[in-house]
């Protein structure tokens, strides 16, 4: 947590006083499973009035970081500050981009960019003054980590970095990043200044681009779509990605996952509260919303191929530079997404998923199947209030799939 929190200076520590919040972490000491509503021997309990958190039955240190993030999701909106589960970086000209995305969508990979300054990889606040990182460090996944694919993260693992759940040689202390025997969720916690192009202090002006990442294993979402405000809210509240299911008798079926505001586990208020605040800030500061699919193209998982990372990077570069705003757009059927007809360095034929599927009937069926999953997931939000007019605006409901 010394690595993950913002570290006070020696002068600040001198008259630090009483901590605002206390964490009691009992490691593997289990909670009482016979307590009413308890479903396992692990529990993370927050008491907001006593400002305490008790962690029982887990040695996963991420629970402390995410526990404090949950507290911020409660405190910040009360101060009219929006808390965000997102990565954030800034160009040399001061243009800021936010990256939302669930696990495996490329949030850390795409926000860590050699040509841009890293404000943070996971937790941010958007206030009247701009954006700021809540943390003072990064908590990077390091399964299959390699110097070639993730040079910045690789180089950040040095003295002072805490590695979690990794397997290493007792004699040489060399880490085997491919070993999943403890868990696939291996991590490295390092101070943000270990990233060479980190922006210190971790603050920036108001974002220009809000990028929603989805790893669509169904293979029907376009590699990039420009969203209007209502669509941005719809996809932000949905928080979609797809997990690739385990193999059962040789069948591989993608599984849709929805996590409201791309962080349902951590948000304390209703998702529409955060969505309304995001809409207001995007409108006020003229930010553009984008939906970027880092998943499959030309077919679902097992048939198509994953969109190449260099192509996704070219798409992100075009968003940062502003050139994608000036592209020519067409609209897709069902989801009604605006997609560009050409992007420099990206094959034009992959920009519209309909072109990449050889089986057009299967494409339409899969598209309608995913649209149905979106619609079903959104039903629970349809009756909630949002915005000043006290109802979830018709525009947001209309911004979903139409079929």
Automatic annotation (TrEMBL):
GO biological process: gluconeogenesis
Pathway(s) where this gene product acts: Carbohydrate biosynthesis; gluconeogenesis
Protein name stated in the entry: phosphoenolpyruvate carboxykinase (ATP)
Keyword annotations of the record: ATP-binding, Decarboxylase, Gluconeogenesis, Lyase, Nucleotide-binding
Catalytic activity from the UniProt record: oxaloacetate + ATP = phosphoenolpyruvate + ADP + CO2
EC number: 4.1.1.49
PANTHER family cross-referenced by the UniProt entry: PHOSPHOENOLPYRUVATE CARBOXYKINASE (ATP) (PTHR30031:SF0), PHOSPHOENOLPYRUVATE CARBOXYKINASE ATP (PTHR30031)
Family, per entry: Belongs to the phosphoenolpyruvate carboxykinase (ATP) family.
Annotated GO MF terms: ATP binding; phosphoenolpyruvate carboxykinase (ATP) activity
Domain of life, per lineage: Eukaryota
GO CC, any one term: cytosol
Cited NCBIfam families: pckA
The protein's enzyme class: lyase
